Amino acid sequence: xxxxxxxxxxxxxxxxxxxxxxxxxxxxxxxxxxxxxxxxxxxxxxxxxxxxxxxxxxxxxxxxxxxxxxxxxxxxxxxxxxxxxxxxxxxxxxxxxxxxxxxxxxxxxxxxxxxxxxxxxxxxxxxxxxxxxxxxxxxxxxxxxxxxxxxxxxxxxxxxxxxxxxxxxxxxxxxxxxxxxxxxxxxxxxxxxxxxxxxxxxxxxxxxxxxxxxxxxxxxxxxxxxxxxxxxxxxxxxxxxxxxxxxxxxxxxxxxxxxxxxxxxxxxxxxxxxxxxxxxxxxxxxxxxxxxxxxxxxxxxxxxxxxxxxxxxxxxxxxxxxxxxxxxxxxxxxxxxxxxxxxxxxxxxxxxxxxxxxxxxxxxxxxxxxxxxxxxxxxxxxxxxxxxxxxxxxxxxxxxxxxxxxxxxxxxxxxxxxxxxxxxxxxxxxxxxxxxxxxxxx
Length: 442
Ligand SMILES: *Cc1c(COP(=O)(O)O)cnc(C)c1O
Known about the structure:
Number of helices: 16
Structural class: alpha/beta
Order of helices and strands: HEHEHEHEHEHEHEHEHHHEHHEHHH
CATH topology of the domain at 72-99 and 205-412: Rossmann fold
CATH class of the domain at 72-99 and 205-412: Alpha Beta
Bound molecules: pyridoxal-5'-phosphate
Helix content: 40-55%
CATH architecture of the domain at 72-99 and 205-412: 3-Layer(aba) Sandwich
């Protein structure tokens, strides 16, 4: 059997379409709530598979779940004030609470399920870190297939690399960046019949749709005004657009929220194409010549993505077309934010009690920017997605807060971060009660 992730003719990614009229679809999203009372069943416990009627590609017996998706939406007054919202208007969807510490588990449970359905023996992915951590945890828990992960040799955060190693995934550090690693893994998968778990895999996006179902559920099934999400390979934004398009077509929601996808300024392919070159979804062949010119210039000028938000340090987002479709469906906008804005926003997220990794804070920095531009109104209800846990990348956090200028310069100065406005520096004190009291009273 051949496992395809892209069309053999045009090379575009595949997409999952259901024949909804032949499937049991609930008449109201409220029906999913009743599954809370049946939480001893692992499928009803899972924050992904609780909604399995809306991603109905697998038989219950094939589903691989490790209890993913127990994530929460919470109002954040601290971050709301920072962004410039009216009281109660800003919500954080904290996907760092997943078993491997990032939203990737929502997708990997679905990809692992499909891998099981097709009897895969080996699964692989390329990763800036979180995808490999997620695939590795599913493989080690399920014990159904072996795993090879390809990471770029540069800036993988240690929190993430340590997970892949600890979960016993075979880990290849390719001498190149993420885009190189992804190209190689796609080749290897094609050559060796290995099951590919990057977000080129359409089943992953099916799982990631459920992040939006949980957001709606937390808001008592009221649709917010904005969803703001960091954009890397654009799997999440694509999945969110698909989720809302399907819910609307099924009559399960009455309107679609607006979508804001936030790039790091150092990895801003989507921003350039969408906001500066005006590329739009046109049914599948989106702006192909503009996009091709853009990428060939990127290659000939040897432009490489560079941001400390390593999870979104990507040159060629593979889900570009699907993301354009999502932006079209959700009246979307794209913005870019600097590493400085990202780290300042991250410190505010932390001050409000939610730790996240740098890439995640791009959503908050982007919301602040859109609020300042007046695109987001102060009275709107805004949901920012916190994609990954704070402990994934503690170096960036410590460097920002540390009064240790050498560390700050080394880690962040090179990335153009000049100030740490919200730094909470550790205080060095002598090992002496009197001195400690003096410091506390200062
Ligand atoms: C993978 C990842 C992203 C990027 O998501 P895409 O779906 O590739 O756009 C953002 N933040 C974190 C923490 C991630 O792990």
